[in-house]
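Journal club prep — side note

Before the paper discussion, L.F. wants everyone to see what a predicted structure for a comparable chain looks like in token form. Sequence:
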Amino acid sequence: MERLVPARLPAGRRDEWRTYTSFMKKGRPPVHSWREMATAWIHDQVRREWLDDNPLVADESGIPRSGRSVSTLNYVETVNILVDLYWRLSTDHRILLAPAGSKMQTVGCFLVRSLHPDIHIEYPCPEGFAPEYSSGIGSRWQVDMGNLRGLTNALATIERREFLELSL
């Protein structure tokens, strides 16, 4: 679960953070479905405070789910949703991002932050984990991004074309 928290810039007090809205996205893990259910429950508790910003949509079985759901493994989905929210909100809001999802979702958060240095990141620091949270070592994931500067430059070019309609 990541929380994108835009804070409106108060007149005359640009150093003050005031949260006016909170956007959440939920991860879809390929295994450990209990994590998705736990995240859904947590989101529901927070969503009640921010109903307008976090709409629910019914899934194929009619159960209401978050309108923003991304893979826990495909970091590109995280990049896409955060870039879209950034361009909708950044002119009037400061953006505070609190990655609390998977490692790959955090990679997506890093890439968006590398494109937009005005995004502030707060990393949650849990006090601990329940014993049933995890056991053993699962599959390893390796992401070959090549030259990171080249990747972020390519992403920035795509962004300018899509959101600013500049053909560079």
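L.F.'s comment for the group: The helical segments are 33-47, 75-89, 103-115, 148-163. Keep this in mind when we get to the figures.
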